[in-house]
Design brief:
Blueprint: E1 4-14, E2 17-27, H1 30-45, E3 52-59
Antiparallel strand pairs: 1-2, 1-3
């Protein structure tokens, strides 16, 4: 199992505001990274998964 670094870009809908974000997240698979983003941003900003829009996931080399 190799852990890779992924760069995740997307947007958060908080009320009527849309906020862009960019995070670097470690993970084995892309699905692990998506789950980690939903967990971290959801708990930090108190928003639901449908309010988090993931636009792009790229593996950092």
């Amino acid at each position: 199992m190799n852990i890779h670094l992924y760069t995740v870009k997307g947007k958060l809908r908080i009320g009527r505001q849309i906020i862009s974000f960019k995070k670097i997240v470690p993970g084995v698979k892309v699905n692990d990274v998506i789950e980690k983003i939903y967990c971290e941003l959801g708990s930090c900003h108190k928003i639901k998964r449908k309010q988090i829009i993931i636009e792009k996931i790229t593996e950092k080399v």
